[in-house]
Amino acid sequence: MTSNKPYMIRAVHEWILDNDCTPYIVFMADYPGVQVPQDFIRDGQITLNIAPSAVRDLTMGLDAVHFNARFNGMPTDIYGPIGAVVAIFAKENGQGMGFEVDTPPAGSDIDKGPDVPPKRPSLKVVK
Question: Would you say residue 84 lies in a domain?
Answer without folding.
Answer: yes
